[in-house]
Amino acid sequence: MILCVTLNAALDVTYVVDEVRWHAGNRVTSTAEHAGGKGTNVARVLHSLGEDVVLTGLAGGGTGDRIRRDVVAAGITEQLVAVAGESRRTLAVVDRAAGDATGFWEPGPRVHADEWETFLRRYRGMLPDAAAVVLSGSAPAGVPEDGYARLISAARDAGVLAVLDADGSALRLGVTAGPAVVKPNRAELSAATDHEDIWAGVRSLLAAGAGAVVVSAGADGLLASTPDRRWVARPPEPLTGNPTGAGDACVAALVRGLVAGNGWPERLADAVALSAAAVLRPVAGEVDRDAYRRFRDLVHVEEV
Q: Distances from the Cα of 91 to the Cαs of 16, 33, 69, 133, 166, in angstroms?
């Protein structure tokens, strides 16, 4: 199975409006509410593709209960560890006229030391059954700064491949533990490495310990590198919609290809197609299956 970790689980709320009018009232045409957080979104996409997935992480309070119920209703096995604090909510406002979305993220609960240790024991206990682990998103207050590095090290000791999608110190410290793949976006890469040039930033993460780096560059697709080869993968056509879950769909495709042992060009084509198909859905964690199949053979992957 693939183990997905969401340390800062969320209840995602999505508002769709015809056009956002800032500093004025806006009529919402449709709403959606479901369990979120980046790791949860990855688990949803993998589950929809028929993969065996377990979701773990931290969740608390009434919001945490709603998150658990929604995960179970989606058919995903959950092993979330309870914390005393209240889990966060996130709000994404999808602007149809602009073909884009704006997000508002609450910070999440404060995690106590004993709660973190309980989670570590649960996590280590699940590693022997995992083919790979995905570590995605932010960490709430109280989680050690090197928390992701510890989780990657535990996975490595158990012979389990790890994929890291984080930013800031979680990315900088996490990469030193040797994840198989890290997937920052362009802004996260620049902030973590102090390099404006993408390839210079990629080389910095590889030197720090990453097995491979995949950078999401929005409409420009994906840039990927191992220590000795690199590629660019571009989407087949410009898309408008809700890009909130595109990065999570990308991670789902990457870990799926990693477990299957697919070559990098195939992994990247799948990741671009699945990300593009996610943009066409109004809610993060969903993909347009017909579009995914259509895009899959149209993605252009070039070694550079």
A: 11, 9, 19, 27, 20
CATH superfamily of 2-22+30-303: Ribokinase (3.40.1190.20)
Predicted confidence (pLDDT) per residue in 247-286, tens digit: 999 999 999 999 999 999 999 999 999 988 887 776 667 7
Q: Which two tokens stand for residue 76?
A: 């995903």
Among residues 70, 95, 165, 248, the one annotated as catalytic is 248
Sheet holding 88-95, edge to edge: 30-36, 10-17, 88-95, 100-105
Question: Which SS3 state, helix, strand or coil, does residue 231 take?
Answer: strand
Note if 248 is an active site residue.
yes
Comparing CA positions, the residue from 103, 139, 111 lying closest to residue 12 is 103
Question: Is the pTM higher than 0.85?
Answer: yes
pLDDT tens digits, one per residue of 9-28: 999 898 999 999 999 999 99
67 Cα distance to chain centroid: 17
Predicted pLDDT at 199: 96
Confidence check: pLDDT of 303 > 80: yes
Phi, psi dihedral angles at 54 (to 5 degrees): -125, 135
Q: Name the burial class of residue 132, with classes exposed (0-12), middle (13-18) and buried (19+) by CB atoms within 10 angstroms of its CB.
A: buried
The pLDDT assigned to 246 comes to 87
Please give the distance of CA 206 from its chain centroid, rounded to a whole number: 20
